[in-house]
Amino acid sequence: MGLFKKSYTNLPEFWKTYENQFKKPIPKDFNELTFVVLDTETTGFSFYEDRILSIGAVKIKRETISVQDVLDIYLQQQIYHKESVHVHGLLKNGPRICISEILTLEKFLDYVENSIIVAHHAGFDMGMLNSALRRNGLPELKNKVLDTGVLYRKTLIKSYLVQPKTNYTLDELAEKFSISKKDRHTALGDAYITAVAFLKIISRLKEKKNFSLKMLTK
């Protein structure tokens, strides 16, 4: 890591609007918090060489998924890898309406505001989103981030005989919580599965003492 933070100049208005959201204090009441649960479908796993093909997101407040307020965006991309098509099913010249990367980022920032971001294996999604922001001359995201894989481990009882796995896939969480995988491997479908899993995890964690946002971020 460098000693000096990169300085950004001539930032667009949509970034300034997004940044100003963080001047508001975070609600202390857990039920007043807004969570944006998201997923990205990408051309591959490299933060530098690969690109985001689609972003899906849903909002949660008061432990309710807002199905009327979703984000479902497909991006125009020149970079494409045929070997990843069987996973996400997105073709380079497919029928979906696609928009530019910079317009996608503007719409995403307008949607996410200062909400707490939730994702499964969140480091990957955040890495791809931050790479896209940097590529377009913008700073990294400022939101707090929660990972459902990490949170799920907090619900498990450790013992000498049973040790939690290091990683749990989204498929495993869907099976453990009996969540339908009908739209698996679409960004919006995976965001919805992750949102349901998040609510199930929160329900379990609330049974523990001193439940709070701070407990989730430890």
Provide an overview of this structure:
- The chain is of the alpha/beta class and about 220 residues long.
- It has one domain (about 35-215): Nucleotidyltransferase, domain 5, CATH 3.30.420.10.
- Helices cover about 35% and strands about 15% of the residues.
- The protein is built from eight helices and five strands; from the N terminus they run αβββααβαβαααα.
- It has helices at about 15-20, 85-90, 100-110, 120-135, 150-155, 170-175, 185-205, 215, and strands spanning about 35-40, 50-60, 65-75, 115-120, 145.
- The protein has a five-stranded mixed beta sheet with strand order 3-2-1-4-5, sandwiched between helices.
- Helix 1 runs parallel beside helix 3 (about 100-110).
- It is globular and about 50 Å long.
